[in-house]
Amino acid sequence: MNVLITGNSSGLGLGLTEVFLEQGAIVRGLSRRGCPLKTERRDSHDEALRDQRVDLGDLNKIVPALEAVMSDAHRLDVVILNAGVLGKIQAMHQTDVHDLEHLYRVNVWANKVILDWLIESAMPVDQIVAISSGAGINMHYGWGGYAMSKASINHLIHLYAEEMPQTHLLAYAPGLVDTPMQDYLCHDVDTGEFPSVQKLVDAKGTEHMPDSHEAARQLLALLPDLKANHPSGGFVDVRHL
Ligand SMILES: NC(=O)c1ccc[n+]([C@@H]2O[C@H](COP(=O)([O-])OP(=O)(O)OC[C@H]3O[C@@H](n4cnc5c(N)ncnc54)[C@H](OP(=O)(O)O)[C@@H]3O)[C@@H](O)[C@H]2O)c1
User: Fold this and answer.
1) Closest ligand 1 atom, CA of 174?
2) C-alpha distances in angstroms, 193 versus 101, 143, 226?
3) Which of 28, 90, 158, 177 could bridge 50 with an S-S bond, Cβ 3.0-4.6 Å?
4) Per-domain residue ranges of the chain
């Protein structure tokens, strides 16, 4: 099995990398820091893990990185468009438009560049899952750019499904996952001002916020069902399955 995962240096992307490697897959990853498994391990996983460091916010660097990491790949079974940034939880009118521009480059446009490359290089791809969020539907106060970017990725996936008829595409909200992204939300956000964050604080350390390995295992187990039972181009929240 051949897999491409963006943002596999930490959190859910790292969990997915571990779980796919356990299944015997070849995993190709893109992130700025690189996947820590690449340096920590010196076993069979090392061969199965291809890693390219790239800032996905620098859109011109994405295609060269893709070409490097995909140099010996002729098809992909699964692509997980996972890399994402949260930005600061704050009022929209206080958010710098240049910060929003950066957030959109990473969360939305980098995925467009990757999808375009897959189409232009005629790479056969079986299944693409873009990691979205319930935030993209809820639009709670404070989640401004992040919420907008996740709504945009849902629409982007819908549009590309029309243009990639041989591939199954889905935007997938993984529910709450205990990752570094949650550390900021649960420790540094004023829940008095942003009450929607209280639910996350309450969930941390409980079964309602599994760790990234568990969330990755859940997504991997769901992949066949997501493909068979959900129309390409749709949005699925794991909490509603
Ligand atoms: N945690 C949750 O509860 C939750 C809930 C819903 C959705 N999500 C989504 O799940 C995905 C993974 O998030 P996470 O919670 O695992 O957060 P995380 O631990 O912060 O991981 C984010 C990943 O994205 C990569 N990334 C960020 N900016 C990048 C850039 N400019 N270039 C390349 N890679 C970049 C990071 O790699 P580098 O820093 O090494 O570049 C890292 O590997 C995100 O799309 C997030 O929106 C998370």
Assistant:
1) 6
2) 25, 12, 37
3) 28
4) 2-176+215-236
Provide the edge-to-edge strand list for the sheet that holds 26-31: 49-53, 26-31, 2-6, 76-81, 125-131, 168-173, 234-237
pLDDT digits (tens, 9 = 90+) for 144-168: 999 999 999 999 999 999 999 999 9
Question: May I ask the CATH architecture of the domain 2-176+215-236?
Answer: 3-Layer(aba) Sandwich (3.40)
pLDDT tens, position by position, 20-59: 999 999 999 999 999 999 755 555 556 899 999 999 999 9
In ligand 1, which atom is closest to the CA atom of 132? 7
CB 140 within 8 A of CB 206: no
Q: Containing H/E element for 31?
A: strand 26-31
Q: Is 10 in the pocket of ligand 1 (CB under 6 A)?
A: yes
Say how far apart CA 227 and CA 146 lie, in whole Å. 26
